[in-house]
Amino acid sequence: MEISPAKIIVLFIIPIFLLASVDLALASYSYEGMPFAPDAQGTFRGEFYMDGGHGLGFSPYSQNFDVPEGSVLWARLYIGVWGGTDSDEGWVQPEFNGQRLEKLHLEGINDENENVFCAGHGVYWVAYDAGNLIKNGENTVEILTSTGEPGKKMDGRIYGTVLAAACENPKAPMVSYQLLTGNINLHGEGWSENIKEVNDRAEVNFSAGQALNNIDSANLSVVYLTGSKGLPDYIEFNGEIPGVPPQYLVEKCGENVRDIANEVSFDSSGDKGAASSYFDMEHIDVLNYLKADNSAVFVRGFDINGDGKIDDQEGEDYLHPVLAALVLTSKNTESVFPDLYPEIRVSEEELIDGKPVEISLTINNPGGICEENCTAVFLVDGNEISRVPIQMGAAGIHRSGILWSGIKGEHRLELFLDPENSIKESSDKNNNCELNILVRSAPDLSVSLGEPVKIENKEISSASTILLGFIALFSIRRKKPIFLILLVVLIIATFSGCVEETQKTAKTDYSISVKITNNGEASARDFDVNLYLDGESVTVLNIPELEGQTSIVENIRIDTQKGEHALNVNVDENNRITESDENNNEFEISCTFN
Q1: Cα gap 133→114, rounded to integer Å
Q2: pLDDT digits (tens, 9 = 90+) for 209-221
């Protein structure tokens, strides 16, 4: 991999690089939620353990787990917390086998904690590493929250808790698994800020099992928060709908109905299960539906009556899938080598000329356990930019990142894993990946104003017309003398004159058109437009997004007296947006308001 020094000087001297691995923030708040991503994966001889419960309850909240025999390779503790709203704040702190874990401050829409997923109106899914505290046999978890603490408004009740672990045992069958976590807010109309928005389905793709030749069992494990009994919901696996129809819904919904998230865990296959309010965990046999590439879809409901929407008799109002695991077992005794493959991700909206952007790197190992170190080489347009140290762990996932300042134009990002071939793998043909990207020029916001247009006020004339009509009708019906009618007309005329005199000093409504333009290529997001009249603020417009090389026009209504006035408009006054030109963000004119 020979590098041309000339190319490096031309392409990469001007941008600023952090040529090192950086920690990635894996979560933040999103109303619609966070898509599922792998949290652990691999192939080993032993048992994949996943258990939990027990439904909505107050702090302190206790749960016991019975971990099977074997050497624990890794362990994760997951906790569902009800915030009450997306703005109320508080904290959560678990105690695992007598050892207190980190107290995490939960901050709703402002939350940026690593491994905290907050979605919807304050539904939290929190993950902790428990690998150093877990033991075989009985484990006890007690969870504390800020419920009742002065100054903390967060509800703080616990939906439930889940413990997942990989227990290696040379006497057990071979296991291949993939565990994914997230927090997706499935919801119908009226549950979001935009009443027309719905989110009915969420798909999860699995890459487990490629290392096994003969598969004897296949189980899909899923966890939900906020589910309600009696409101249908479904899980699809490779296009099939597993589970049994609940008898309490068959009469009104038919034999194909399901209610997976029904506040009873471990009952989707017809077993009695265990009551667990607003929390559901299921283990589903999917061996008969297994394919080479497998996927599951969480479905909020189906439009059974064909009216074009899912009502509260056809699906859940809102539902939060948070965990999914595909676990395959085989009696095959052959050893399985590691199988590492890399992935590159970058936010397209962050690819702006000259702006440092985080390139996220993920190294996956769905094969045999690998706890060795290696190197990944990051290239841009064929030129080596950085060598990133990779330390694989038993959980089969390594995440890191690189900060890179892009130059406007198209580029090819590449990642080569273990170029020294230091790790013996089942295949090294998938040790590289590439991603084609487009770096756009920065936003360039400008603003202009149109002439004021008087808004005709027809309220007085309309009121007068209505009054005259009423009096005329009243007079006809009552046969009043003509002089009385004339007297009424005279009073109205006098009244109208008074109104006209008052209007000479009254304010008049005008419409002002404000044109906002983004001359750059990249979108500008979440900025304000401030309008001033004679130095006084009139209004502030918030623009959620303005795409590159587009314009929008907003008509603003103001009331002022007739005469000469100064209008001033300023876009992105607080400089939230990094622009290529900051000198065209203000526009001022003097106008005659007639």
Answers
A1: 20
A2: 666 778 999 999 9
